[in-house]
Design a protein that fits this description.
7-stranded mixed β-sheet, 14 strands, PyrdxlP-dep_Trfase_small, 522 residues, pyridoxal phosphate, Cys/Met-Metab_PyrdxlP-dep_enz, PyrdxlP-dep_Trfase, Cysteine-S-conjugate beta-lyase
Length: 522
């Protein structure tokens, strides 16, 4: 290995150990983590004095009798890399698949195992091993958090039991008397958390249009500690300039937090734009199959990451091992799912924009926002996402449309392989009081899935036709409309009157006798 490469590798190793061992020794408190080579070498030697040259986390011990730090200063998870400055040579689709979540496992599994345990045996009564209690750390969760950190270019990522638990952790970075500025178009659950929880705990909540930088600058006060936004916003799909927001926030020593649930890391990586905290409801695109709930917080600064790690452990909001496994599996197909759904979204948005009963279409693509908003979005994202909102001019029409749809299931959430539809004012954002709501009552939000777009377009046209007519929407049980064409097996007219045998009677009956499950009578 060449000298330059060797020095670079030493710096990488130093940064990895420093990030993982931060709370096991006294930091210099400067907050500057860029440093020169000599500073990193000095820090590396300080850590090596405690754990030696090896960074095999399974061999790390934390002696209790000789430690000079507080118990709460011990790391709750073993060594993991800092991906804040990591440049991955792989393309996004490969990054979702090429990842070894458990390189230290002696059996070298091709997939990360589920460590379904609550406790871990310790080396002795006077030492801690790398894990002790799953609330504090678990190998399956470590694998998920490392993979997410790599995708988001984060110093560290943390997995929580739900998207709301992740958002709540961000608000817990505030203390009494602090202020948080929040985008006026925000997810209903976050609005409820801010107005009915944070505000009652002494945190001042101020809503502002984050697409207007002048308005944001005027709203910042000495008490402002966090600016929180979404881009695109949920559900009106408003675009905020994350780069300029980050610059403005940092000029006032304020953190910028972005809920990027609508823009998974295969489309957008806000930390690279200067954002400090990125939140995901992993239930959506990271899962992709609507079969588990979870949340993620990705942090750019190692010092802030240690505070988030402390809150995750202290408040017991971490994600369980089995759900971590499901998200690890979901990530593998995320690029494929999102890419296919985006292709469908573009065609559906074009069709909706041409329909005479659709008043406005909102999505970060041509015809779905202003040219300036589209320029900003394209400068910070590589795709339009999979969400479309639109208005019809009539609440009744919107309801009839959703009730008549067969493939777009009427339900909250988004990001699934299945296409979904809802009316935010009465579903996902119903927790916002009507007098505080800024949403049109007739607004419909669609989450486009990976079905054949021809089937989706046909379903939308059928639903729009029913909504335009005076006919009641057809009754259905949630299946594809083509199931109606299947033949129905007629039930015998005397089926209800015919006595049925119990299981014991059937077992005692003669083998040659008639089967009680058959339609034919004896």
């Amino acid at each position: 290995m060449a000298k330059g490469q060797l020095e670079f590798q030493e710096e990488v190793d130093a940064a990895r150990i420093e990030n993982a061992m931060w709370r096991s020794w006294k930091a210099d408190g400067s907050g500057d983590h860029s440093g020169d080579h000599s500073a990193k070498t000095e820090k590396l030697e300080r850590v090596r004095g405690s754990i030696g040259d090896s960074i095999d986390f399974s061999q790390i011990r934390y002696p209790q009798e000789t430690r000079r730090c507080r118990y709460d200063d011990l790391p709750t998870f073993p060594v993991r890399p800092n991906f804040a400055g990591f440049e991955n040579a792989l393309q996004p689709a490969s990054q979702c698949v090429v990842f070894d979540g458990c390189p230290e496992d002696p059996y070298h599994p091709s997939n990360t195992p589920i460590y379904q345990t609550s406790t871990f045996v310790q080396p002795s009564s006077s030492e801690f091993g790398p894990y002790d209690y799953t609330r504090s750390g678990n190998p399956t969760r470590t694998a998920l958090e490392k993979h997410v950190a790599m995708l988001e270019h984060a110093a560290a990522a943390f997995a929580f039991s739900s998207g709301m638990a992740a958002l709540h952790t961000v608000t817990r970075l505030l203390k009494q008397g602090d202020e948080i500025l929040v985008n006026e178009d925000i997810y209903g659950g976050m609005h409820r958390l801010l107005t009915q929880d944070c505000a009652h705990n002494g945190v001042q909540v101020t809503f502002v249009d984050t697409t207007n930088l002048t308005a944001v600058a005027k709203a910042i006060t000495p008490k402002t500690k966090i600016i929180h936004t979404e881009s695109p916003s949920n559900p009106r799909m408003k675009i905020s300039d994350l780069r300029k927001l980050a610059t403005l926030a940092h000029q006032h020593k304020v953190l910028l937090s972005v809920d990027s649930t609508m823009m998974p890391p295969v489309i957008c990586q806000p930390l690279l734009l200067g954002v400090d905290l990125v939140v995901h409801s992993a239930t959506k695109f990271f899962s992709g199959h609507a079969d588990c709930t979870g949340g993620l917080v990705c942090v750019r600064d190692p010092e802030l990451a240690h505070r988030v790690a402390f809150l995750q452990n202290a408040e017991g909001t971490a994600l369980a091992p089995f759900e971590c496994f499901l998200f690890l599996r979901g990530i593998k197909t995320m690029w494929l799912r999102v890419n296919r759904a985006q292709e469908n979204t573009v065609q559906i948005a074009k069709a909706l924009a041409k329909h005479p009963r659709i008043k406005e279409v909102f999505y970060p693509g041509p015809g779905g926002c202003s040219s300036e908003a589209l320029r900003i979005h394209n400068s910070q994202s590589s795709g339009c996402g999979c969400i479309i909102s639109f208005t019809t001019g009539s609440v009744s029409f919107s309801r009839r449309f959703l009730d008549a749809s067969r493939l777009f299931k009427t339900t909250v959430s988004f990001g699934s392989v299945n296409s979904l539809g809802e009316m935010p004012c009465t579903m996902s954002h119903a927790s916002i009081p009507a007098e505080e709501r800024t949403l049109p009552a007739d607004l419909v939000r669609l989450s486009v899935g990976i079905e054949d777009v021809r089937d989706l377009l046909q379903d939308l046209q059928r639903a729009l036709d029913f909504a335009s007519s005076q006919k009641p929407p057809p009754e259905h049980d949630g299946y594809d409309s083509r199931f109606e064409d299947l033949p129905v097996v007629p039930r015998p007219p005397d089926e209800e009157e015919r006595p049925r045998k119990s299981l014991s009677e059937w077992l005692l009956s003669e083998v040659e006798g008639p089967c009680p499950c058959c339609w034919e009578s004896s």
